[in-house]
Amino acid sequence: MMNDVDIRRSIRLDAQAFKGRDPSCAQYSWALLYLKGYHSLQSYRIAHVLWNQGRKVLALALQSRISEVFAVDIHPAAKIGEGILLDHGTGLVIGETAVVGNWVSLMQGVTLGGTGKEHGDRHPKIGQGALLGAGATILGNITVGEGAMIAAGSLVLKHVPPHSMAVGNPAKVVGYTEKEDPSLTMKHDARRDYFEHVAGSFP
């Protein structure tokens, strides 16, 4: 870790993400000492380096241990940016070919998975600044655009445009986010146009 500039930078930026976006994290030291979302993320970063060095057996062993201890399952081949918040972390699953951009926030129970039928590049690509709500499931080689917000419990099977808001099972775009990335504001509530959309769908 001391010899890897990228890991050292990511450790600092991830700590800033936890301190800045999680109101229960009052101090940087709390992320370092107590928050398993942060611990599992940094452990993944080590496994990812091992995977890229060709030390795949050791990387997979570390993945297995991370899953056992933290209830977070991130394949070491997945590509995750910096400034990431894994809030709570419990039940998070990120598949082998998934890509997560910088400044993304992921709540508990998020799944970035395949459809079970594909080989090769088969997992989602999450754009910078996206917010993935609790229990959101995103399947297949699809893209969630930059600054998009996926509501809690949604099932996403199609591409989501940048700065849009997707809700439901299956998820549909029901509105657009404000200028600032939702991953930074951590606003999960739907806007007025969403409620108007829901109200208009009933007789």
Strand order of the largest sheet: 3-6-9-12-14-15
User: What is the CATH architecture assignment?
Assistant: 3 Solenoid
Helix content: 25-40%
Q: Give the N-terminus to C-terminus distance in angstroms.
A: 60 Å
H/E element sequence: HHHHEEEEEEEEEEEEEEEHH
Specify the number of helices. Answer: 6
What structural category do the secondary elements indicate? alpha/beta
Give me the CATH superfamily.
Hexapeptide repeat proteins
Give the rounded overall mean pLDDT.
Answer: 91
* CATH fold node name: UDP N-Acetylglucosamine Acyltransferase, domain 1
The major beta sheet can be summarized as: 6 strands, mixed
In percent terms, what proportion of residues is strand? 15-25%
| Unreliable stretches covering 5 or more consecutive residues | none
GO biological process, one term: cysteine biosynthetic process from serine
Family: Belongs to the transferase hexapeptide repeat family.
Pathway: Amino-acid biosynthesis; L-cysteine biosynthesis; L-cysteine from L-serine: step 1/2
EC number: 2.3.1.30
